[in-house]
Amino acid sequence: MGTVLIKNNTRGIIHVRITATSEPGHEGFFDISSGETAPWNRKNWEVAFILRDDNSKTETLVVQPDAAYTIE
């Protein structure tokens, strides 16, 4: 199992959900404040859904364990 890191480099809060296909793990949305980083433990490539408060847009990423992603 590896860690997926999501860093919020926006001016507002982001709401992030990462799937947990065929494994245990929280799949609900988690709030990340501006400048903060949050970890998820995942063993497979998964899909991250991001809702931004600063511009009300959504982003979708494919994420993999032991990788870090920055939302700008």
Question: What general form does the structure show?
Answer: globular
Largest sheet descriptor:
4 strands, antiparallel
In DSSP terms, counting alpha (H) and pi (I) runs of 4 or more, how many helices? Answer: 0
The pLDDT mean sits at: 95
Class computed from helices, strands and strand pairing: mainly beta
Order of helices and strands: EEEEEEE
* Helix share, percent: under 10%
Low-confidence stretches: none
Strand content: over 45%
Assembly state (oligomeric): single chain
Q: Numbering strands along the chain, what is their spatial order in the largest sheet?
A: 3-2-5-6
Number of strands: 7
Radius of gyration: 11 Å
Terminus-to-terminus distance: 27 Å
SSE blueprint:
Layout lengths: L1 E7 L5 E5 L11 E3 L4 E6 L3 E7 L5 E6 L3 E5 L1
Parallel strand pairs: 1-7
Antiparallel strand pairs: 1-4, 2-3, 2-5, 5-6
